[in-house]
Design goal:
Blueprint lengths: L3 H5 L4 E3 L6 E4 L10 E4 L2 H9 L6 H18 L5 H16 L6 H16 L5 H31 L7 E4 L16 H8 L5 E5 L6 H12 L3 E5 L4 H6 L5 E4 L3 E3 L4 E4 L2 H11 L3 E4 L5 E2 L16 H4 L19 E4 L6 E4 L2 E3 L3 H10 L2
Helix pairs in contact: 2-4, 3-4, 3-5, 3-6, 4-5, 5-6, 6-7
The protein binds 5-S-methyl-1-O-phosphono-5-thio-D-ribulose.
């Protein structure tokens, strides 16, 4: 059976019909089970984002946009000031769930802007405008992913071997995904790719999500441990690396899942182009370089205990568990956005795509 359309058009995050909740696919349960969760309270949203039940920079932003709308509906306030004060509390709480992916604060700020720009309106009207805005955020992401997929595909040839890290597919976005988008689009057009998916320690997004999405879509995928990337590159099996991003600084330094920068260094060594794909909502010109990007640190248990029957290290052994690293812009062959492919010097090309709008 051909699941390509189901994979690329999956509803991983959506607002319920009556607007009272957000329904997500619990990504921590995949691939064993497709389980839907209904999120309603601020804690539901915070936990789902923090625990990576919903994950991937654009998907987190979409979920936060829908989420703060749901919460705004529940605010009991007779006047604008009360409404805005409680809205801000929810905004700050949701925003604190994960620091690195800029899409979270970006979507929440967009929603806040709607509230601030309409202070003269009745609270009921503001709520209606918020409903429209969160839908727009979602719709725009669909369009951005489709455009990124087209630009990304222009960089590839039929039969190419591709290496990807973590998961930047439909589950991490709205439709198609970013780094995986060109592969799905190519498949629709009859092209074949041979994809190596890094398993992506410690949370295994590559194994659990990327290989699942590609396999179901009928794309040739081979799962490898992260430390095998060098060998498959040396063997000549990789013609391009495609990865997503969580925050791109003004100079092109790109934060993405831990291990990404190592892949970029290997790619440079073997002369393989390394592309970062992401919507402009992931570009943060307020960060001058990658040094300004806050890197999320997560629990040692993710390294020592998660997925194991017994702990894989002594209780007293220290662990360092950064969730992201920053790939230096000098290692990046191109940053693929919905507005085109940016090339070095990134300080100019990235600023340029914002000016053109
Ligand atoms: O911690 P995660 O699973 O949210 O990290 C996700 C990534 O690093 C993705 O590559 C990134 O968000 C791109 S999503 C299109």
């Amino acid at each position: 059976m051909n699941y390509l359309k189901q994979v690329t058009h999956i509803d991983n995050v959506k607002l319920s019909e009556d607007g009272s909740s957000v329904i997500i696919i619990d990504q921590t349960k995949l691939p064993a089970k497709t389980e839907y969760l209904t999120l309603q309270t601020a804690k539901d949203f915070y936990d789902a984002i923090f625990e990576l039940k919903v994950r991937g920079a654009p998907a987190i932003g979409i979920c936060a946009g829908f989420g703060i709308y749901v919460l705004a509906r529940s605010i009991e306030a007779g006047n604008y000031e009360d409404f805005y004060r409680q809205f801000r509390q929810y905004q700050q709480y949701l925003n604190s769930a994960r620091p690195t992916a800029v899409n979270l604060s970006w979507a929440l700020k967009r929603m806040e802007q709607v509230v601030r720009n309409n202070r003269e309106k009745a609270v009921e009207e503001i709520r209606e405008l918020l409903r429209k805005e969160c839908h727009t955020i979602w719709q725009e992401d669909i369009e951005m992913c489709q455009a990124i997929s087209k630009y990304g595909l222009s960089l590839l040839k039929d039969g190419d071997g591709i290496l990807t890290h973590c998961n930047a597919g439909p589950l991490a976005t709205s439709r198609y995904g970013t780094a995986l988008g060109p592969l799905f689009l190519g498949k629709e057009r009859g092209m074949e790719f041979h994809v190596f998916a890094d398993e992506t320690r410690p949370l295994l997004q590559g194994a659990r999500l990327t290989s699942y999405e590609l396999q179901r879509a009928g794309i040739d995928v081979t799962l490898i441990c992260d430390n095998m990337a060098s060998l498959v590159m040396k063997n000549g099996w990789v013609q391009a690396c495609l990865v997503g991003c969580d925050r791109v600084a003004a100079n092109g330094d790109a934060a993405n899942k831990i291990g990404t920068s190592g892949v970029a260094i290997l790619a440079k060594h073997y002369g393989i182009p390394f592309y970062v794909l992401g919507p402009t909502s992931t570009i943060d010109l307020t960060c001058k370089t990658g040094a300004d990007i806050e890197i999320e640190l997560r629990s040692p248990d993710e390294i020592k205990k998660k997925f194991y029957e017994h702990p894989m290290a002594l209780e007293e052994v220290k662990c360092y568990n950064p969730a992201f690293d920053v790939t230096d812009h000098t290692l990046i062959s191109g940053i693929v956005t919905e507005r085109g492919i940016c090339r070095a010097p990134y300080t100019e090309s990235l600023a340029g795509i914002f000016k053109e709008q």
